[in-house]
User: Fold this.
Amino acid sequence: MNLDQLSKDKPVFLVFLRQFGCIYCREALGDIETILPEIEAREINIVFVHMSSMEDAKPYLDKYGLGNALQISDPQCQLYAEFGLIKGSMGQLFGLKVWSRGFQQMLKGNNYSLRPVGDGFQMPGIFIILNGEVRNMFVYNSIADKPEYLKLIDDVIKDLN
Assistant:
């Protein structure tokens, strides 16, 4: 898949996931599922980047109604690195915010998986690409950060009008 070409047609909402065993990765998929009609109404191409094989990613994406979204398998994290996404520090991965939000998620019935599906140290990120250029981004300071997905998209769309 050529992101540059894809972004010439309409903006690309490029979502770099952590590993599918991560509670915050699954939370992000659930959040995106919830706003999917609003994203689709904005005529945005959604592309998920993950470290799993396409076959291993399918049940996770299908669970959240995102199985038809475009996806890129990047087990070596080359695309992650090209977009400047780093391996997390201890604070970014295990800090107080991570534990606090993780506990809140567990109270909601969401649990960590003890089976990592990818590099557990890889940090996630979100990029809005248009005409081959990154127009907006959210780079996580902690894996427990919670981006405002629609605001990221809308900030780019409003600049088009």
Q: What stands out?
A: Residues 23-41 form the longest helix (19 residues). The mean pLDDT is 86.
